[in-house]
Amino acid sequence: MADVLGKALLEYHQGKYSEDIKTYSSLDEEDSIPLPYLFRSFEEMPALEQKALQMAKGKVLDVGCGAGSHSLLLQEKGFQITALDQSDGAATVCRERGVKSVENCSILDYDKDKFDTILLLMNGIGLAGTLKNLGAFLKHLSTLLNPNGQILLDSSDIIYMFEQDEDGGYWIPNNGQYYGEVMFTMEYKGQKGSPFPWLYVDYNTLQNACLANNLDCELILMGEHYDYLAKLTVK
Fold first, then answer.
1. 90 CB contacts (<8 Å, ≥6 apart)?
2. Residue spans of alpha helices (H) in 84-217
């Protein structure tokens, strides 16, 4: 499978920036991920991410770490942090940028250590892929927590992307799927990656999934556009 994200991150890191990553989804037209945004400073991060970094404690696992911007900020503050990403290119960039502990694998294949904080930022819970897989995904994350550990994640309720009628209800396609399940494809410099499922989960649905998997779910902060930061702890 082409590591489209990794290739783009590596080239940006090497000073060869000429274009951004294009994304195609089952929801809308073509969009893009600006590469500089993946290398952003604390000041450039949205309030939800800033708040999550301020709440981090103890040993930290940064899941889907990308270029390692969150990991580096916490490492500079003295945290013992492990950055994890399935993308080979992302893992290489993290190492080259100075992240001391980097794991290059899927979070579902990881079981080496336990942590006080697990970060799933930039909608990292999307890695669960589908609503059906969310329970097993949360269960696996729970096994990686130390006693009194926490999972900090942000996500969005993408209901706003559907048409609204006069009564304020939304027209959601009745295809048996949860409306937050999206298929994505990334493209960089003419090379397309394989399509992958991604999950945006509204807060109530996340709460219910937590309830079913012995987790407490607390709403920490609402963002400006249907997004939120939540803190999960084992009951």
1. 5, 6, 9, 65, 66, 67, 68
2. 88-97, 131-143, 203-212
Q: Report pLDDT digits (tens) over 137-184.
A: 999 999 999 999 999 999 999 987 877 666 666 666 666 789 999 999
Q: CATH number, domain at 68? A: 3.40.50.150
Instruction: Find the helix or strand (DSSP H, E) in which 9 lies.
Output: helix 4-13
Cα 124 to Cα 137: distance, rounded to the nearest angstrom: 11
Segment 95-108, tens digit of pLDDT: 999 999 999 999 99
Report how far residue 1's alpha carbon sits from residue 179's, in angstroms, rounded to the nearest whole number: 27
Rg of the chain over CA atoms, in angstroms? 17
Residues ≥6 apart with Cβ < 8 Å to 153: 119, 120, 121, 124, 125, 229, 230, 232
Q: How many domains does the chain have?
A: 1
Cβ atoms within 10 A of the Cβ of 230, count? 23
Backbone phi and psi for residue 174, each to the nearest 5 degrees, phi listed first: -90, 75
CB 233 within 8 A of CB 149: yes
Return d(Cα 41, Cα 221) in angstroms, integer: 20
Structural domain boundaries enclosing 62: 4-234
Q: How far apart are CA 22 and CA 180, in angstroms?
A: 20
Best CA proximity match to 82, nearest among 109, 101, 67, 99: 101
CA distance 135 to 41: 33
